[in-house]
């Protein structure tokens, strides 16, 4: 029942997005004002459309970082905000440019080798950081600079291709440039914040050093957008800043264990977002402030139709969720009760309804910009 409910919520959201945001100058014309030729997305788990939906993860109904659902034909429901945007913009459903895992589990679970799919332009990957290649879940566990000091998993082996490499991979596959007619979505930096938070909480760096690391990451991402995306022909670039991690279950748990952690997390995210904002001045960039909206959702949930902004919809107990992650969460292992309007699937990832809220806000900002 919950799985069907999610599918209905998603279908309704697509209908609202498509009907409510179209341009064209007449009530009957719901086509976007800009006729995009394709959709490209870069980033991390918040935009991942199935990089790790392989082996038992895929066959168990997982693969996206939310409450995974399926359509009547068995295909994954469009639960990620980039999938909802594709429907709104009359684009083909996004597919992951790269799939697979490279940890020890890849052998035990008969997971296929890492594969690249020509024509797929969903480059975002769970665990990806802005520049550093070994993000959360990566098999290369170890201290900086040659491994991930926290959240590494030699068993799972997430690919965590960083955003800078994702962009380069797209350029390599498309003659070194963007056409100028595609819409480019980019949302990254969350894993940089999580890694630096846990490194700080573990005593590996000071709070000031953590904030400085995020300042650098924000500067780097703005630079990549300017020199690798805009300079190579992209004209419609939608950049989402980092949501307010301090108010997520991750932030709440960090604060409970280490009083004062929430303020450090907020400072890190603010430093990153400020550098991103300052570095992107082109009229071809739309910066979407999901950070402010995410804070507002937690402070005033009923205004957004949210019924819970503190608990996780997924049951993360290892007995029912071996990864303790929304990556393998579905109707089979959610908590009891109606979670259709919960904000969070796990400690940091939104539910399908949370993704709907992101897509709605992105759509509204694109409409104001005149792109939708």
Give the topology, please.
Layout (H helix, E strand, L loop, with lengths): L1 H20 L17 E5 L11 H5 L21 H8 L9 E2 L5 H4 L6 E2 L46 H11 L9 E5 L2 H12 L5 H24 L5 E5 L8 H9 L3 H19 L5 E4 L1 H10 L8 E5 L29 E3 L7 H18 L3
Parallel strand pairs: 1-4, 4-5, 5-6, 7-8
Antiparallel strand pairs: 2-3
Helix pairs in contact: 1-3, 1-11, 3-11, 5-7, 6-7, 6-9, 7-9
List the defining traits of the structure above.
GDSL_Est/Lipase; signal; 4-stranded parallel sheet; globular; alpha/beta; Rossmann fold; hydrolase; 11 helices; hydrolase activity, acting on ester bonds; two-stranded antiparallel sheet; 372 residues
State the helical fraction: 25-40%
Based on the coordinates given, report the CATH architecture: 3-Layer(aba) Sandwich
Secondary structure: number of strands: 8
Instruction: Describe the largest sheet.
Output: 4 strands, parallel
Using only CA atoms, what is the Rg? Answer: 19 Å
The order of strands across the largest sheet is 1-4-5-6
Task: Please provide a written account of the structure.
- This protein has about 375 residues and is of the alpha/beta class.
- The protein has a single domain, classed as Rossmann fold (3-Layer(aba) Sandwich), CATH 3.40.50.
- The protein is about 40% helix and about 10% strand.
- The protein contains eleven helices and eight strands.
- Residues about 1-10 and about 10-25 have low confidence and may be disordered.
- It has a four-stranded parallel β-sheet with strand order 1-4-5-6, with helices on both faces.
- It starts with a helix and ends with a helix.
- It has helices at about 1-20, 55-60, 80-90, 105-110, 165-175, 190-200, 205-230, 250-255, 260-280, 290-300, 350-370; strands spanning about 40-45, 100, 115, 185, 235-240, 285-290, 310, 340-345.
- It comes from Solimicrobium silvestre.
- Pfam families: Lipase_GDSL.
- Keywords: Hydrolase, Signal.
